[in-house]
Write a structure and sequence with these properties.
Bound molecules: P-hydroxybenzoic acid
Low-confidence stretches: 1-46
Shape: globular
Strand content: 15-25%
CATH topology of the largest domain: Rossmann fold
Radius of gyration: 21 Å
Mean pLDDT: 91
CATH architecture of the largest domain: 3-Layer(aba) Sandwich
CATH class of the largest domain: Alpha Beta
Strand order of the largest sheet: 8-7-9-10-11-15-16
CATH superfamily of the largest domain: Response regulator
Structural class: alpha/beta
Helix content: 40-55%
Amino acid sequence: MSEKLESYLSATVGRELPRREFLRLGATAAGAFALAACGGGTASPGASAPTGPDFKVGGILPTSGTYAELGDSIRKGMQLYFDKVGSQAGGRRIVVSNEDEAAGDPSIPLAKARKLVEQDSVDLITGIIASPNALAIRNYVDQNKVPTLISNAGVNALSRSQKSPFIYRTSFSNWQPSQPMGRYLVDKGINKLVLVYSNYAAGAETAAAIKETYSGQILAEVKPPFPNTSGDFAAFITQVNNARPEAIYVFMSGQDAIALLKQAKTQLDKSIKVTGSGFFVEQDVLGAIADAAPVGAVTGLHWALTLDNKENQEFTTRFKSRFGKTADVFAMQGYDTARVIVEALNAVKGKTDDKAAFMKAIAQVSFKSPRGDFRFDANSNNVINTVYVRELIRDPKLGYTNKVISSLPNVVDPGK
Ligand code: PHB
């Protein structure tokens, strides 16, 4: 392995690996680079030039507003996986176009879904960061039988009362990261909690999920508006301090999480522990807040940069090398979504006219993901996740990041 690659892996993977392990990892990464360069890939060995019509993927992801960075990560994660297989599967070239999910007005993503289907004739829709937007496109894609893979928005109803045979979710339901965390916090002796969450579906469903297993006292629920356009969280942090909890449990993401944590650094009482579903301390946020990172924060999420498996090492290394950006949970979700598309296209040999058969192929996809085993639950059309309990640390090589301290496997949305 070249010295350059070796020092790069050391910097990005950041573990003190024994030399033999280092060589193995280097060989994997180098092999992946070489395959990507000649247009091949592990998922379609020996693929020849595509013969069928292009398979058109229409992404709907934000390019501005609170969640713009999340959209960027998902797009890049998808691109990384499609590149790995030479952007083809089942004898078809895969072509991706993206529309702006926009922020705030759910009629915009619905209009974008219509445009992608009716003008651009896409074969599949993916993306959607925000819960209300996933609900907004639900009836349209259901009625028009458009295969759809939601790659972030966690709104529970899509796995329950609003489930559609044409919608599968590769990310999580809002219930998933938080339902197991209530019991975990009680077991750790946290008996007085304040919930802090962006005041919309994703925050409210997070709060409801933790209440299912948290048997301590919830002293208050502090609900900043979503998005918090003023960027000012002072009054909300004061509400938390006044309630005198042992810990806060947070749902927030993107720019709102960045602003909250910067202000909490000086304003939140030092005695209050920080916990939550992991989005508010994901790598997109940590990269933006530097020393305002709440070291010691304990969060639940279905991935961590430091997760120690071969697929994650390859993914995080290649992502950083390709884009110069540290991977985050959203990038991982994009990467897995692209893989689901590739595996399903290969399974039906590129024949997607029979929509029911194509959806069945999607439902049956399973593989080793950077998050661990990936498979769908047939009852909820939603991915089954391991929820990793993570502790925020400052790593000498990786900087601020989340270390996995416990794994809660097989977290399956109840589906009703
Ligand atoms: C959601 O609206 O479902 C949502 C948005 C951002 C996240 C997680 C969930 O980080």
